[in-house]
UniProtKB/TrEMBL annotation:
Keywords: Hydrolase. GO terms for molecular function: 5'-nucleotidase activity. It comes from Pseudoalteromonas prydzensis. InterPro entries: HAD-like_hydrolase_sf (IPR050155), HAD-like_sf (IPR036412), HAD-SF_hydro_IA (IPR006439), HAD_sf (IPR023214). Gene3D superfamilies: HAD superfamily/HAD-like. This is GMP/IMP nucleotidase.
């Protein structure tokens, strides 16, 4: 379990951690291939294969998270398509109580996301999740994603947090590994990022499926 007396700062991922990942899963694996098939006049199977190849080519890089990159690559109106499906953007049901308790306990709550700023603003408008936060950092402002060490150096320089007294929460094993390598003292893995998918245990980390179980 977490020892909250040893934690001052909580760095929180957004998609799959504070918000249900179902919107993103559906958007990138269903909506985009469908649109790609229409624009390129190819079969859905061909579109899916092409899209997955493109995703894998930039996985973990800032381009993978960049809406401008995908708009250019696929010739699709990405933000317009996101707005058409924004009704699927949902806060995890355990999150409001969790963040409220952390605020009351005097913890500093910072969103640290690889999501593009336009996507962040759309999700804030849909969920008001920003009302719980003390700060917001999109890795796009540094041009490097959470999977890479320079990002952590930039973020610490900006926030001035104590690594040993910081908790980082994410649903990505690669990102958690990068935070561990940087020396973040407390790490928490979200094992159920997508409400429509089975749980997945992230080995080597404390796993959580309901944040309320962590409250003192």
């Amino acid at each position: 379990m977490l020892n909250w007396s040893k934690i001052d700062t909580v760095l929180l991922d957004m998609d799959g951690t504070l918000l249900d990942l179902h919107f993103d899963t559906h958007f990138w694996l269903t909506v985009i291939p469908e649109q790609h098939a229409i624009v390129q006049n190819i079969s859905l199977a061909q579109a899916k294969a092409d899209i997955l190849k493109r995703y894998q080519a930039v996985s973990g890089q800032i381009q993978w998270y960049c809406l401008d990159y995908w708009e250019q690559q696929l010739n699709l109106p990405i933000m317009e398509l996101k707005r058409q499906h924004q009704h699927l953007i949902k806060v995890r049901e355990d999150v409001p109580e969790f963040l409220t308790a952390l605020r009351q306990a005097g913890k500093e709550l910072i969103l640290l996301t690889n999501a593009h700023p336009e996507s962040v603003m759309l999700k804030f408008a849909q969920t008001n999740i920003d009302n719980y936060l003390d700060g917001v950092i999109s890795t796009h402002q540094y041009g490097v994603s959470k999977e890479h060490q320079p990002l952590w150096q930039h973020v610490q320089a900006e926030l001035g947090f104590n690594k040993q007294r910081t908790l980082f929460v994410d649903d990505s094993l690669a990102v958690l590994n990068a935070a561990k390598e940087y020396g973040i003292g407390h790490l928490l893995a979200v094992a159920n990022p997508d409400s429509k998918q089975p749980h997945n245990e992230l080995s080597d980390y404390l796993n959580v499926t309901d944040f309320r179980t962590l409250l003192p």
